[in-house]
Specification:
Layout (H helix, E strand, L loop, with lengths): L7 H5 L5 H23 L11 H14 L1 H33 L1 H14 L8 H8 L3 H25 L3 H9 L4 H39 L4 H10 L3 H29 L1 H9 L1
Helix pairs in contact: 3-11, 4-5, 4-7, 4-9, 4-10, 6-7, 7-9, 9-10, 9-11, 10-11, 11-12
């Protein structure tokens, strides 16, 4: 018979099993091993599919010469600035649209019209307005992240059970208290989902923008490698993009656990 805190057993359970750690590492290792074997056996054309050993060797050489850092840091800065530019107003507007019917009726038609437009398609217009410098690149990334975060934040508020608002009103809670105690915590899961999507979109957009409008960046690196048939460097750029995606997701999940500790408890219970 259990005694004490009924949650004690769940809280002591490890957050991840050994399989959760092994399989995410084992699967890529197997893929790279098969790729390496197929390349040396002649089943893959090394011009288009260089063996992983050559790709990793090229990556190490690029780190030693500083070429990788020169292209990585500009991309990270553009992603960070664009993400903040789109996320902060997107969260505020999305929460307002979800909470206020009037705001939603006013803004939702505009969001519905503008959201489907491919964000990379408006790059020429942005460049006409802002020039070909860093501001235009960051703006395109910000626009792409803005819509994802706005829509998810609005959906998060609208998915909150109305009974919580009724209880808050019955207890005489002011609007600020309702926002901080009901709207914000209730919408956080969808807000963070939107932020994860926005981070992925930031990486996609910034690489696409860098293809032809930047001298430095992962997109510029990939494009130059394609033009010169340096496929090893092309794969290095793609690999770094994949690593960035993993890092972004991991960091955001840690932040999410900090702001929503109850989510982890519910997962353990389940």
């Amino acid at each position: 018979m259990k005694s004490g805190n009924p949650w004690a057993y769940d809280m002591k359970k490890p957050s991840s099993t050994r399989a959760d750690v092994i399989f995410p590492v084992l699967v890529p290792v197997i893929i790279f091993a098969l790729w390496e074997i197929a390349s040396h056996a002649g089943y893959l054309n090394p011009l288009f599919f260089p063996p992983p050993s050559r790709i990793f060797k090229t990556a190490a050489e690029m780190v030693q010469t500083g070429e990788l850092q020169r292209n990585l840091f500009p991309t990270l800065m553009r992603i960070l600035l664009g993400f903040l530019l789109g996320t902060v107003p997107g969260i505020l507007l999305g929460l307002s649209m979800g909470w206020s019917r009037r705001v939603r009726m006013l803004i939702d038609p505009v969001i519905s019209i503008l959201y489907p437009i491919p964000k990379i398609a408006i790059l020429p217009l942005i460049m006409l307005l802002l020039g070909i410098g860093e501001l235009s690149k960051v703006t395109v990334v910000g626009i792409g992240t803005f819509f994802l975060v706005t829509i998810n934040a609005m959906t998060g508020v609208r998915s909150i059970n109305r009974i919580y608002f009724e209880v808050a009103n019955n207890y005489g809670a002011k609007k600020l208290k309702i926002f901080t105690k009901v709207v914000l915590p209730g919408s956080l899961p969808m807000v963070f989902s939107g932020m994860r999507l926005a981070l992925g979109m930031s990486l996609i957009l910034v690489v696409a923008v860098e293809f032809n409008t930047a001298n430095y960046g992962l997109g510029a690196l990939i494009w130059l490698a394609w033009e010169t048939l340096r496929t090893e460097k092309l794969y290095v750029g793609i690999l770094i993009c994949a690593v960035l995606g993993i890092v972004f997701t991991s960091v955001l999940k840690r932040i999410e656990r900090h702001f929503m500790p109850w989510e982890e408890t519910l997962m353990r219970k389940g």
